[in-house]
Structures are given as structure tokens and as C-alpha cells.
């Protein structure tokens, strides 16, 4: 595995080592010991899988407040997504900054998102499958959503008319959320 730092502290792109031969390929997608050695010390407790049937589906921006905040290790296993992480750690020098990474089944890249970030993704293909490990269990009372196009954050999703759930469509602005990072 190779770790690629990003412009935002603790937000890391992971490129797994891929072994190709005439039969296909093999890649190790998770190895706690190796990630610990690379400085990622999350104790993942739950795996989640998402399927989006249509290109242009946008999920996010989602997070869980403390004490139920979650670090995530995310990757796409079918199709392609634009993955977005927004730093909401109020004491961070990169507070409200965001990163967009294209994650695809072909590039096999992963993104490690520490606690204190909002997360979302936009599907670039039909039939996209997205997976993520989290280091804290889901807690409905701690769940928060921020509108994807909040001008205070300014994520550049491209020229889109996304397919949204009702929860994401009616999400509040960051300034109206009780984020506690």
C-alpha cells in the first residue's frame, strides 16, 4: 500500500498494491497492521455498502456528531464516483476546506477520512457500488446532513442536476447545523 498525503491534514489517499497477471489481478484492500504502520490507527467496527442505480446520484454531505463521529475508509468497487470530504474540525487550519477524489473500480484508490469531516459522493456511472469501513457504529441521533451545495463550503461538483434523497434535498446549511467537532 502507498499513502498519498493531501492538502488537508490527516485526509489520505491510499493506493493498494495490485498484482496483475494473465488471470486478472489481486489487491489487499485492508490490512490493519500495515495501516497502523502507515499512521492510520482506526479500529474499524462496521462495513457499509451502497448501490446507486443512476449516474448523477449524490449522497451527502453526511456526518455523525461526537461522541459518535466516524473515521471512514472508502472505495468504489463498481463504476466511478467523485468522492468529497469536508474538514469540519473547528480548530483545524483547513476548516471548511474540501477535497474531491475520483474513486473508481479501475483505479482501486481508497480515501481515509478521519473523524471531524463531512462526506459525500456523486456517481459518475450507472450502477455504482461504494463501500466504506467506519470506526464507530451508526447512531441516528448523532447523524447530521449539510446541503451539498452550501456556498459557505463551495464544493465544486461540476455542472450537475443531481438525483437526491429527500433528506439530502432538504438538508440545512452548515451555519444552521449543530456540528460539534
Describe the SSE topology.
Layout: E1 2-5, E2 12-15, E3 18-21, E4 24-27, H1 32-37, E5 46-52, E6 58-64, E7 72-78, E8 80-87, E9 98-104, E10 110-113, E11 117-123, E12 128-134, E13 143-145, H2 166-169
Could you characterize the architecture of this molecule?
By secondary structure, the protein is mainly β. The strands form three sheets. A six-stranded antiparallel β-sheet has the order 1-2-10-7-12-5, with no helix packed on it. Strands 9-8-11-6-13 form a five-stranded antiparallel β-sheet, with no helix packed on it. Strands 3-4 form a two-stranded antiparallel sheet. The chain has a single domain (about 45-175), classed as Jelly Rolls, CATH 2.60.120.10. Helices cover about 5% and strands about 40% of the residues. The two termini are about 30 Å apart. It contains two helices and 13 strands, in the order ββββαβββββββββα.
Shape: globular
What is the CATH architecture term?
Sandwich
Q: Which fold name corresponds to the CATH topology? A: Jelly Rolls
Summarize the amount of helix as a percent range. under 10%
**Rg estimate, integer Å:** 16 Å
| Annotation, overall tally of beta strands | 13
CATH class: Mainly Beta
**Spans of at least 5 consecutive residues with low confidence:** none
User: Strand order within the widest sheet?
Assistant: 1-2-10-7-12-5
Number of helices: 2
Terminal Cα span: 30 Å
Beta-strand percentage range: 35-45%
Number of structural domains: 1
What is the typical, i.e. mean, pLDDT? 96
SSE string: EEEEHEEEEEEEEEH
Biggest pleated-sheet summary = 6 strands, antiparallel
CATH homologous superfamily placement:
Jelly Rolls
Derived structural class: mainly beta
